[in-house]
Amino acid sequence: MKDRKIFVKTFKTRVVSICLSIIICTLIITVVLIYFFRNENIKPPIEIDNKQLIPFQTSSYHIWEAETHTGPPSEITRVIAIQSGDNLMGVLVRAGAERPAAYAAIEALKSYYDPRRDLNIGDEIQISFSPESHYQKANKFGKIKRKYFFKGVTIPVSFDRLIKVTLNEEGTFEANEEKRHIQRETIAASGIIKSNLFVDATSVGVSPTILAKLISIYSFDIDFQRDLWKGDKFELMYEQIRNEKRNIIHDGDIQYAKLTLRNTKLPLYRYKTSSGNLDYFNEKGNSARKTLMLTPIDGARLSSRFGKRKHPILGYTRMHMGIDFAAPIGTPIYAAGNGSILKVGRNGGYGNYVRIRHNSTYQTAYGHLSKFAKRTRVGNRVKQGQIIGFVGNTGRSTGPHLHYEVIRKGRKINPRSVRIPSGEKLKGSELKKFLVFRNTTNKKFSNLFKPNQNFTK
Ligand SMILES: [Zn+2]
């Protein structure tokens, strides 16, 4: 009985364990079958050599920003940001493109784009891969082993244009230029100089690119190193271009700017004339691109030119480093250009003397004055045509005249040789058109700009 009991017990245990094994095996088989069955429908999106992907996945620069697959079999698109040292061929191959196909694509690209010259660090290029079935016939570049193959690449050429290279039905790569989906947005910014222009402008969101443009459009008027003081104000309106993801991809041109330097307001408007001249004009319709006045005095007679001459008092021949204009005592003298007063007072042979700094390149000097205008004080800003003083006969002078000098980068030059492109002054109907444009622009700025945004009065 004991033996039988033992036998029954062992028999039962065996049956139980066999049953359990069968159940476990069935479960495993089912799971495996389900897994494989699913896999037959949904192919893994990446069947490209995974080893090649590892550097991308670990490097912060190479993130697959978009890897789309919308149901099997679908196309894969990878976005790569170009890094320093990258070349297009290398990037395509690393992303999984077959070498001959990548080469053919680059060849097709060349009529539009030179990858050696035009590829920039940070450019985001999109590389597409197609499932084999779609283009099986088309793919003549061999290597059918892979389930996905390189189908094309999209490269940004400018903020609003793309070049798209795609494999066509004939199996060759074709390049096409396309417009990018961009959004233009007008930005208004304003602020007060507290530390310096760079810090204060960037703190209200102005990019260094826009700041560089601002400095450039005011270069005929202002020396930014010296003329900007604490408490001075700036206003700016410019265009920003964003991509589909709302990222800023480009800073457009400044449409309007106004600098308030102490009490001088200097607005500039970007305006295209009927004749197609695109320029910045001040509130009166004068181009910001202005020359220095050749004759900073009215009703005067040119009495001595620049160059060698026999000095009337000292008697020997020497260089005359300026131009003389004979005029009665008291005739007004004008600032030859916008700028700030550098020197006012007695200056040896020059007698009563004024020196104006126009920008970092040009200065002008005025000699033999009888008296100075009230506002002619060191550090004050002057506008082109503003009276700075009056003709006299002070210093080493034989008769009432203005001695006028132009100093370029510290050297006295012939005022007649100043080659600053002369500025356009809008007149008549063109001026009327401009004034309407100016008022619209002012309105646009004040509508865009909410006073409590970042502006303190
Ligand atoms: Zn002179």
CATH architecture of the largest domain: Roll
| Poorly predicted spans | 37-72, 134-139, 142-146
Number of helical runs?
Answer: 9
- Classified by CATH, the class of the largest domain is Alpha Beta
* Percent range of helical residues: 10-25%
What shape does the CA trace take? elongated
| CATH fold title of the largest domain | Nuclear Transport Factor 2, Chain: A
> How would a textbook summarize the main sheet?
10 strands, antiparallel
Number of strands: 22
Small-molecule components bound? zinc ion
Sheet/helix structural class: alpha+beta
Task: Set out the fold topology.
Elements: H1 2-41, H2 54-58, E1 76-81, H3 88-95, H4 99-109, H5 115-118, E2 124-131, H6 132-135, E3 148-158, E4 161-167, E5 173-179, E6 183-192, H7 197-203, H8 208-217, E7 233-242, E8 248-261, E9 264-272, E10 278-281, E11 301-304, E12 307-310, E13 317-320, E14 323-326, E15 332-334, E16 339-346, E17 352-357, E18 362-372, E19 381-382, E20 387-391, E21 401-408, E22 411-413, H9 428-448
Antiparallel strand pairs: 1-2, 2-3, 3-4, 4-5, 6-7, 7-8, 8-9, 9-10, 11-14, 12-13, 14-21, 15-20, 16-17, 16-19, 17-18, 18-20, 18-21, 21-22
Helix pairs in contact: 3-4
The protein binds zinc ion (ZN).
Q: Characteristics of this structure?
A:
alpha+beta, Glucose Permease (Domain IIA), Nuclear Transport Factor 2, Chain: A, 9 helices, single chain, 22 strands, 457 residues, elongated, binds zinc ion, 5-stranded antiparallel beta sheet, 10-stranded antiparallel beta sheet, 3 domains
